[in-house]
Structures are given as structure tokens and as C-alpha cells.
Amino acid sequence: MFQQLKNIDTAFKHIKVFSAVLIIACIFISSFSLVKSYQAVQVAQNRIYILANGKALEAFSAGRKENIPVEAKDHVKMFHQHFFSLDPDDQVIKTNVSKALYLADGSAKSQYDNLKEKGYYSQLISANISQKINVDSIQLDLDQYPYFFRCYATQELIRSTSATTRMLITEGYLRNVSRSDNNPHGFLIERWQTISNHNMTIESN
To answer: What is the model's pTM?
Structure first.
């Protein structure tokens, strides 16, 4: 009988030890799960999803300063594409130029007015010329503010009988402004001017 009691006592001790180990294991697993869940939430909060052309694209959040080179260059590229991508349609020209003028100050408006007075846009329409632009490179100086930039691009003027390729070099300065639907990068181009715009090749169709 005493042997049975001893066996029961031993079994009870084993159960207590097993229960203690099980409780400690549960606490450890729960703590580990909480830590991992917290880390997962932190990672998720650092992610940004952008909807572009019906697709959700994942991006990572970063400070404004870290993104300045990328956003500044894209702002300059977007401005030039709007300002110089033209078709022989008065409405298309006005729409594209209007988008460009949201991204720059009065210096861009002055160039537009000069081209308009010289009949440049009328010639595009009357001669059925399409104008396309490809931005080759953008130099950016972040050591000064406003930020200086120089843009190197290639223009293509397409006629029914020929295609003319032109070299375009412009420069200006970028100033920080509030972001908006019309100006998503939050920059404004100032003192914009054309340094060079000359023919490179002319090909007959």
C-alpha cells in the first residue's frame, strides 16, 4: 500500500513538472508570437500601396530628403514631356501645355507665349507635325537650394514626308511647394530656359 502511495506521489510530481514545463512553453510561444506580430505590424506600416493603371504597386515609405533626387528628376522629366509632346491638334496642345505650366513658374509661360506669338503651334497644326521628346539624362545639384538642374533630351518632329531629330538642352531651378493633384512631386521649376535646340538628323520617309 505504501508502495502504491509512493508511486502516486511520484506520478503527481511528474505531472506537476510536466505541467510547469507545458505552461512555460505556452508562455514562451505566446510571447514569441506577440513579438513577431508586432514586428509584422511595424513592417506593414512602412509599406505604401500605389494604384497605377488598375494595379496595386507596393512601395516603401521614406523621408522626403531620401526621395528628392528621384522625385526631382521625375518632375523635370514630366514637365518636358508635357511641354514638348505635341500633336497637330489645338486641344491636345493646350491640354499638354496646361499640365506643364502647373509644374513651372512664369518662365515656362513666357516661353509658351513666345512660341505661340511666333506661330510655332499653328505651324505644327497646319503642317500636320507630331512632336515627341525623349529625356536622355538630367543633371541635378542638391548642394544648393533652389536645386539647379540641366536636362538633356532628344526631340523628334514627325511629318508625312520626313522626320527631324533635334537636340534639346534646358536648365532651371527647383523649389519646394505643396503637393497637389496637378503637382504630385511638390516641386516648382523656376528660371527655366532653353540652352540649345538644334537639328541633328533629317530623314526622308
So the answer is: 0.69
